[in-house]
Design goal:
Layout: H1 2-22, H2 50-67, E1 72-76, E2 82-87, H3 94-109, H4 114-121, E3 140-145, E4 148-156, H5 160-174
Antiparallel strand pairs: 1-2, 1-4, 3-4
Helix pairs in contact: 2-5
Length: about 180
């Protein structure tokens, strides 16, 4: 009986040790490194028009309806100014401003907001939160047409992964 107990304890300790070794935190990037090229250096293009902005929102709403996720959606131009907005019935009121903020951040910084979330959550780069008008939560995706940023879409109301999935579905459907 003692041998069984000892074996069980040893096995559990081994599992915990293996799990701890596997879950090592991501290495922080060298903030003093100077890249050869400017990251996320896509030029800004002609702003997204109302027709395309509304098509993006319609595609996002269609996907949200399939999943029964009431959300809020914003499409902005490259400067981050609102072009179109929709709040589904049952969508959170707090998500009105958050959807627009996600879109504005993605457009102005020319990158998905997931990158900011990763920098803060996984890399511990908390200085990201000091940058003007950043939101470190996924669900904001730049709109790229002919290699240029024409705006961004932002979704809010669910988890970050739900918001991001709806934005990606809208971009895939409309920005072919």
């Amino acid at each position: 009986m003692k041998l069984r107990s000892f074996t069980a304890i040893a096995l559990v300790m081994g599992v915990f040790a293996a799990g701890a070794a596997y879950a090592q935190p991501a290495a922080k990037p060298d903030l003093d490194a100077i890249p050869d090229k400017m990251p996320f250096n896509l030029p800004f293009g002609t702003p997204v028009n109302l027709e395309k902005a509304q098509a993006l929102i319609s595609a996002a709403i269609a996907e949200a309806n399939k999943k029964n996720w009431p959300e809020d959606f914003a499409v902005v131009d490259p400067s981050g100014d609102l072009v179109a907005f929709a709040r589904m019935d049952g969508g959170q009121y707090a998500s009105i401003a958050i959807a627009e903020h996600k879109a504005r951040t993605a457009a102005r910084y020319r990158r998905p907001t997931k990158i900011f979330e990763h920098a803060v959550q996984d890399l511990g780069l908390n200085y990201i939160l000091t940058l003007d008008d950043v939101i470190a939560s996924r669900g904001g995706i730049p709109l790229v047409q002919d290699g240029k940023i024409i705006g961004a879409i932002g979704c809010s109301g669910g988890t970050g992964s739900q918001d991001e999935a709806l934005c990606e579905a809208a971009v895939k459907a409309v920005m072919k």
